[in-house]
Design brief:
CATH architecture of the largest domain: Alpha-Beta Barrel
Low-confidence stretches: 1-27
Shape: globular
Distance between the termini: 49 Å
Strand content: 15-25%
Oligomer: single chain
Structural class: alpha/beta
Radius of gyration: 22 Å
Number of domains: 2
């Protein structure tokens, strides 16, 4: 009966199959863009390449050099020796689910995202393909299908190994690249997800699973832990301990580092997200303040209602001690070489807006002690390494290197001097298209106008 239900579900679940990894689009085929006299931050190391020319052909970086000839007919972007070219940014944990939210990401310099669950059929079947084909503006979208042991939060629930194998195959058929595990899975279902995911080329990422434990999850092959705070619930803190209790024992940090290093796992370092939760914990006035922030103009009306109705403001106690611990933990992981990914959980958490919050996460990582280069790497080079580990045949991205996808930001200052330089790019290249600052602002203005007209006051 349950397998029959899965088969019926497959008919509803169907989305248009994703374009092959690295597929060239009609919009980019045959085009050449030359970035001339720019200072390049390649992000393959902490270095700057001054006064370079970067040639982009068919949406990929073709060459980087000091005295490259610009092909006739190329579109030239002249940096005048004063502009800085960096890889585009990545948010490796988002729940943004519309064409408008993807535009907001792009306007913030984000050229790749990992959608971590609850994607609508319309998003997977229409919006994502249109972005990848260059018909809509937005970042490249990777997607994870969420599997849980219970149907809470609208997740698809599996109760045994056979169902787990079926759902991996369905996710593969419908263009998903990852399986995201949630807390309530049985050990048998989790093991089947890992096994079938490996067979289908869909790595497992996500939360700590209570009945399995992070140690066993990572040893089994889970590629990424989706939140720093998962270690609070599944590694450092005893089950059932109240979230407002004192911070975990820092003496156990080396054991977590040893585990992550042994299994070569990635961790999404969403410090700014946990900081936003801590700020509003038990404080309704903070949520009200979030709803007055300028970036709320680009937040859909239904998202604003979600923020206003969030339960964090009704909690008791304080998360400040745990936030301090997570800052220390992030620094220790970075110092030990554990690969950290920038991610935000936007826009489901009040105060965490799509695109804008990624800059807050980078700032939070810098202030935790990573410094600007290592913080920037969590949103550029390391996401590229993560996707390559997960999908070896996919297009490479994350550094300014010949052969990589041309996800690029042009800036008016060096972000290694101040990460705020990333917030308002002079231009963005994504999916083979070049968007000027005026183009990007136009996207934001269009969204703000649409949401204003849709508000109850109108």
């Amino acid at each position: 009966m349950r397998i029959a239900r899965l088969a019926c579900f497959a008919l509803l679940f169907m989305a248009a199959p994703a374009a092959p990894a690295g597929a060239e689009t009609a919009a980019t085929r045959g085009t050449v863009t030359a970035f001339v006299d720019v200072n390049v931050l390649p992000m393959d190391a902490e270095r700057v390449l001054p006064h370079r020319t970067v040639l982009v052909r068919d949406g990929r970086i073709d060459a980087v050099g000091e005295a490259l000839a610009v092909p006739p007919g190329a579109h030239v972007v002249d940096g005048g020796g004063r502009a800085w070219l960096t890889p585009g940014l990545s948010d490796m944990h988002t729940h943004a689910n519309s064409a408008e939210e993807m535009k907001v990401y792009l306007a913030n310099g984000v050229t790749s995202v990992l959608h971590m669950g609850e994607a609508s059929n319309a998003f997977m079947g229409q919006v994502r393909p249109a972005i990848h084909e260059g018909r809509r503006p937005g970042p490249h979208v990777y997607a994870a299908f969420v599997v849980d042991g219970s149907p809470r939060y609208g997740h698809f629930a599996v109760t045994n190994a056979d169902e787990a194998r079926w759902i991996v195959r369905l996710a593969k058929r419908n263009g998903y690249e990852f399986i995201k595990v949630y807390n309530d899975l049985s050990p048998e279902a989790f093991a089947a997800l890992i096994e079938e995911g490996r067979a289908q080329g869909l790595p497992v990422v996500g939360h700590g699973v209570t009945r399995v434990g992070l140690r066993r999850q990572l040893d089994a092959g889970q590629l990424m832990v989706a939140h720093l705070e998962e270690f609070l619930y599944a590694f450092f803190v005893d089950p059932g301990q109240d979230p407002g209790d004192a911070a975990p024992d820092v003496q156990r940090i080396p054991a977590a580092i040893e585990l992550l290093g042994r299994d070569r796992a990635f961790v999404t370092a969403d410090l700014a997200t946990y900081a936003a939760i801590a700020r509003q914990w038990g404080k309704p006035e903070v949520v009200a303040g979030f709803l007055r922030q300028p970036e709320v103009r680009y937040l859909a009306p239904e998202r604003r209602l979600e923020w206003a109705g969030s339960g964090y403001a009704g909690r008791r106690g304080s998360l400040d001690a745990r936030l301090d611990f997570l800052r220390r933990f992030a620094k220790a992981l970075a110092d030990a070489g554990v690969p950290l990914l920038a991610g935000t959980d936007a826009p489901t958490i009040p105060g965490v807006a799509s695109g804008f919050s990624l800059h807050e996460d980078l700032r939070a990582l810098e202030q935790a002690g990573l410094g600007r280069y290592r913080a920037l790497a969590t949103a550029t080079r390391t996401p590229g390494e993560f996707i390559h580990r997960a999908m070896p045949d996919a297009e490479r991205f994350g550094t300014i290197t010949p052969g990589q996808r041309a996800d690029l930001l042009l800036l008016d200052a060096n972000p290694l001097d101040d990460l705020d330089a990333l917030r308002k790019p002079l231009g963005v290249m994504a999916n083979g298209h070049w968007y000027t600052r005026k183009d990007l602002q136009g996207l934001l203005d269009e969204i703000a106008k649409r949401y204003e007209s849709a508000s109850p006051a109108h």
